[in-house]
Every structure is written in structure tokens, then in C-alpha cells.
Amino acid sequence: xxxxxxxxxxxxxxxxxxxxxxxxxxxxxxxxxxxxxxxxxxxxxxxxxxxxxxxxxxxxxxxxxxxxxxxxxxxxxxxxxxxxxxxxxxxxxxxxxxxxxxxxxxxxxxxxxxxxxxxxxxxxxxxxxxxxxxxxxxxxxxxxxxxxxxxxxxxxxxxxxxxxxxxxxxxxxxxxxxxxxxxxxxxxxxxxxxxxxxxxxxxxxxxxxxxxxxxxxxxxxxxxxxx
Length: 227
Known about the structure:
Blueprint: E1 13-16, E2 19-22, H1 23-27, E3 31-37, H2 43-54, H3 56-61, E4 64-70, H4 74-88, E5 96-98, H5 103-107, E6 132-136, E7 142-147, H6 156-171, E8 174-175, E9 186-188, H7 194-200, E10 206-209, E11 212-215, H8 218-226
Parallel strand pairs: 3-4, 4-5
Antiparallel strand pairs: 1-2, 3-6, 6-7, 8-9, 9-11, 10-11
């Protein structure tokens, strides 16, 4: 069955470069990002894995655990990590799943459920659809899914931006406009009428259209007032 936003992220137990884990147990009370790779020792993925290692503190401060997946054995991942460090200056500092039986790739609808065999003998082109990003909330629900083509490196600054938006809008009655960045003005959700909005946003807002009311980012206001 195809996964959709709001679905519970399927659980699994796997071997990783940091030992055997139960995914939901490993997530605990944290947010999570699972990003997948079609094959070890591939060029674009090498740059991505190193870059994510370099910005892992950005995920940490957002309470987001990072885990990678590649359709190859864990032993290969460990050897690949040396190349990643040589190429980018940063070895993966988060677990990498070994998905040799393709079970997680199929569970997350990255490969057809009918795919047979193991990772052995499969090429990156065979696994080209294993290029996904899943952001998972503390409630274990899928909050974001992005699928990238194999030749296009992922934009992790955009992924951090979206996580900021998801975490903000989960806690306040707001949405974020096009090209929003942390600290920019936000939109009061239409479900909140003006009377209710006055209680949540006593400082007022700018009405562009009756359904488009713009207000300063609420958690930034709170921090400024409490500073």
C-alpha cells in the first residue's frame, strides 16, 4: 500500500552501522529523518551523506534523529564511510541501515512489493527509486515525503526549512507562506476566526484578504518577550 502524509511510519527491526535497532523504539520521543540511497559507493550519495554529517548539530537542536538507508550490507557501509570522510571531510555520525533483503525499501514503497531477491547483483539503476526523504513526527506519523532523482543531490537546507515549518505549525495556529524562512512572518490558519485569533495574537495582524492574515512568527515573539 502506498504511504501518504499522516500515515504511521511503518516500524521495522534492522541491522545498522550502530547495531540492531527497532525503528520506533530508536526514535523514542524525537522527530526523525530517514533518507535512502540506491547503492553504496555512488557519487551523489557520497556528497549527501558527508554533508548531513557536517550539519548534524542542526538536526540535533531541532530534536531530529537522522538515519540513512542503503540497499547494501552494513559492512559495505563501514567501508564507504571511509570514502565519504576522504571526499567530504565528514564520515556519517548517524546510523546507516543495511537493507540487503530490500525489506525496508519495499515497506516504505520505494521498491515494488513484488521485487524479489536481495541487494546482491542489483545496480544503482535497479534501485533508482530508493532516493526518498521521510520526516517523521514524535507521534510516529509521516510529516514529509520527498523523492529525488538519482542525479540530483538533495537540498538539506530546504529539508531543515521544512522541518522548522512543520514544528512551528504543529504548535501554533499558523501556516507558512511561500519561501518562508525561520523568523519570517506567518499566516493565521483560516480555521481560526477573528475572535479566536485575537486571543492567540493580541498584538494584531495584517489582513491581506479575509482568508490571508499575516502575523509575526509567534515563537519568535515569545522568545523576545521572555528575553
